[in-house]
Specification:
about 190 residues; mainly alpha; 7 helices; about 75% helix
């Protein structure tokens, strides 16, 4: 069996060496390692390394459990080996989890917009609705709506210019600033 890439050949060699204590035939060990990798349906080299770690930890955990089985082994050694197997199993699950998360992210056709983008778009929409209602509104209502339009448009602009990691506190602060602008503008015009 030939491995298509040098990285795959390297990974298969490493994994087959983990299997060597129990599978003495090197060709059979390489086939078993390749079968373990192929079971994960790898799409690229980045996934190959994550899968290799998961498979390596899983195989080592199983081998460690095998080593803990002899009757003549001390209880302390059995517990130590089984504890190590448990830690290896957690590592295997963590790598599997990373791969699944990566696959879900890659499979997602439309990345979700940042919350600030959604808030900004919603504020612009409300401002546009207030603007379109201006013709039928009373003069007092138009004045109030103008203040809201100004505040909403200002906050939407701030959100568009904000850093990508704007958190809820920053968003609330911007909203509070807009509220203060609204109140201040209302006082000036009164």
């Amino acid at each position: 069996m030939t491995d298509p890439t040098p990285l795959m050949a390297f990974v298969v060699t490493i994994l087959s060496s983990i299997l060597s204590p129990t599978i003495t035939d090197q060709n059979l060990a390489r086939q078993a390692a390749r079968q373990a990798i192929d079971a994960h349906r790898i799409g690229n080299d980045g996934e190959l390394l994550t899968v290799a770690r998961a498979v390596g930890f899983a195989l080592t955990a199983l081998d460690t459990l095998r080593l803990s089985m002899p009757e003549d082994l001390s209880l302390t050694m059995k517990l130590r080996l089984r504890g190590n197997a448990n830690a290896l199993n957690r590592s295997a699950r963590a790598n599997t989890s990373i791969r699944e998360k990566t696959q879900r992210t890659a499979a997602s056709p439309n990345p979700q917009p940042e919350p600030k983008v959604e808030w900004g778009a919603a504020m612009k929409t409300v401002a546009e609705q207030l603007q379109s209602n201006a013709a039928t509104a009373s003069p007092a209502q138009r004045q109030s709506d103008a203040l809201w339009i100004e505040a909403l448009t200002g906050v939407a602009g701030e959100l568009a210019r904000a850093k990508p990691q704007t958190n809820k506190a920053g968003l609330l602060t911007s909203t509070l600033m807009a509220s203060d602008l609204y109140t201040e503008g209302k006082r000036k015009r009164a």
